[in-house]
Amino acid sequence: MIDDEALKSIERLHRLKSDGVITEEDFEKSKEKLLFGSGRKVRVQTTNSEATLPADGDHIGWMVLALKRYADFNGRSGRKEYWMFELLTVAWTLACFVMAIVLAGAAAGLWLIGLLGLVVPRVAAQARRFHDQDRSGWMALINLVPFVGPFLVLGLMLIDGTPGGNRFGPSPKLG
Questions:
Q1: What is the C-alpha separation between 28 and 130, in angstroms, rounded?
Q2: 24 pLDDT tier (thresholds 50, 70, 90)
């Protein structure tokens, strides 16, 4: 017997298939797992359509994609989305730092506010990258380990995601 949650998940999967986000094969696999169960719980990616993947050459689109998914800790993000956002983060940090030096203390507050404003989307992007590798998003807490934590996380961000769908949704490469 199909419960309401499974039916809604299948409907979302069908919409993703109709929109071309997932393939027919991924749809069928996910539907089977929902109907007949599996050893692992399957999540359907439910991000809204306004965060669709930009074209390959749209570098600005890739940089701001993580900002569009500001506090979305669900689903998966590919390496391109993560590293383009990191590039934007570094550029913003450097720009705020230069402004703080040039304008003396007046821009120091802006620098701090700018950095704090990027904490949530950065952790969310890291959680989605861990999901892409079929790992828990809580691994982003490794950042809190003094001295080595952020370097470990950056190293883990280099690892390619699992091919095809996993328990966190379809592959971001299928978009």
A1: 25
A2: confident
Tokens of 52: 């669709």
Q: Return the SS3 of 169.
A: strand
Name the residue among 45, 82, 47, 90 with its Cα closest to residue 66: 82
Spatial separation of the C-alpha atoms in residues 81 and 89, rounded to whole Å: 12
Over the stretch 113-168, which tens digit does the pLDDT of each residue have? 878 889 999 999 999 999 999 999 999 999 999 999 999 999 999 999 999 889 99
Query: In terms of DSSP H, where are the helices of the chain?
Result: 4-18, 24-36, 59-68, 79-102, 108-117, 119-132, 149-157
Is 168 buried (19+), middle (13-18) or exposed (0-12) by CB count in 10 A?
buried
Q: In angstroms, rounded to a whole number, what is the distance separating the alpha carbons of residues 134 and 117?
A: 27
According to DSSP, the residues that pair with 166 across neighbouring strands are 169
Mean pLDDT of the chain: 84
DSSP sequence for 127-156 = HHHHHHTT--GGGGGGGGSTTTHHHHHHHH
Domain range summary for the chain, segments of one domain joined by +: 1-44, 51-168
Q: Check residue 47 and give its pLDDT.
A: 45
